[in-house]
Amino acid sequence: MHTNGTDPRLWLRAAGLRVTAPRIAVLNAVATQPHADADRVAATVRQVLGSVSTQAVYDVLHACVRAGILRRIEPAGSAALYETRIGDNHHHLVCRSCGMVVDVDCAVGAAPCLEPSDDHGFVVDEAEVVFWGLCPMCRSTERPTS
After folding, report:
1. Residue 95 in domain
2. Rounded to an integer, what distance in angstroms lies between the CA atom of residue 55 and that of residue 43?
């Protein structure tokens, strides 16, 4: 979770960003809807603030990712998704059918996937693991393949 509690104002101040209504609305939207794409975030922000351009929402999302307030993930075939859970090296499960995304903690020890078999001279500070499969809902509605 976020290291500065649940108040987006604190996140923004800690990152050295101005506290503005659009930034607060975007951070609240992402906090309440983890793994939301920019369009979903924009729709939620508009419910709170009224008329806000999609570009303004993108600008806030990008600024917050750059500042380390939000994490951006991009599962293959999906739009970029945003979440407030940062800095803990967690991973994601993605349903191949409905696209649902859920968090999964790193399975073994402390960040084991930060040690590649050959680092090619890189200093690795983050790894992304995406597990793919079918969620329970999609598995229950799947037709047998006989």
Report:
1. yes
2. 12
